[in-house]
Amino acid sequence: MDDTLDKLVTFLAKRDGIDKLVKTFQYVSKLVHWHLETKHPDIAQRAKNWEVASGLSRKAFRSGRFLTGFNALRRNSGSTPSMQLLAVLANAGEMVYFFFDHFLWVARIGVLDPKLAKRMSYISAFGEAVGYIFFIWSDFILINEGLKKERKSVESIDDEETKDVKEIIKKIRVDRVMRFMALAANVADLIIAIAEIEPNPFCNHAVTLGISGLVSAWAGWYRNWP
Fold first, then answer.
1. Where are the domains of the chain?
2. Which of 19, 40, 106, 195 measures 20 to 30 Å from 119, CA to CA?
3. What is the 8-class DSSP label of residue 1?
4. Is 18 helix (H, G, I), strand (E, B) or coil?
């Protein structure tokens, strides 16, 4: 129990930890609003208010987040040229997303002209979608490389090196799980971005958005849990 509490405290001390918790609030309240809208409109409106407040608080908490893209690019300095290119494109898209998200936030709270909100939302979502496409592409490549490396490691096992090889295989599998979590989160967030860029009945449905948001939040929760 104490260990779990310590992990929770560590998780919530992170910017991403708080973001995933509030994102859970945001999309659970979206689903509650959809479910209760016709039968209990008063409760549904409270859920809607919670959704809006959660969304705005996440935008405020992400202030300056676009600068983390520079660190992400620096961490990819030792990778292959193709992976470096994918990293540049992915992080550039994400930086556009977070940068214009600042203007969307201040437009929605009335500091800037509220009419700018729709334009800022489109630019932010477009950058987000571009970033997620390249992040997804990168994850597929890395998962495939991990599978090849694991097969070679399994084939090279002998009595003297069994322990070391098993440790390598374990690390590969742990990394693959994290890659799949990232893949799930990025696909879910891509659906949310498409709903803003090109509204359509499937992506813009409350259930689609709600489930996508929760998949993204919980996959991110798993990746950030100590």
1. 2-224
2. 19
3. -
4. helix
